[in-house]
Amino acid sequence: PFKTCQWTPMDSDDMPGTWESSCGEAWSFVDGGPAENNYRFCHGCGKPVDVNERKYSDMADEIISEMAAKW
Predict the structure, then answer these.
(1) What is the 3-state secondary structure (H, E, C) of the chain?
(2) pLDDT tens digits for range 40-60
(3) Looking at the whole model, is its pTM more than 0.70?
């Protein structure tokens, strides 16, 4: 089990400022993100928030590049 809940910015043009948590919740901010809004604990699971600033598409591109380099 994880000791923290990882929050990652979602890739969404329709909902900017939206973050997805590792516990399966989504949160939207009008200004800033979790750190700027003093979110210390996840409202979904209660664990401490661990902010991951990298977007999912950036992480996917990196994984694809790594896999392609191995082939």
Answers:
(1) CCCCEEEEECCCCCCCCEEEECCCCEEECCCCCCCCCCCCECCCCCCEEEECCCCHHHHHHHHHHHHHHHC
(2) 999 999 999 999 876 555 555
(3) no
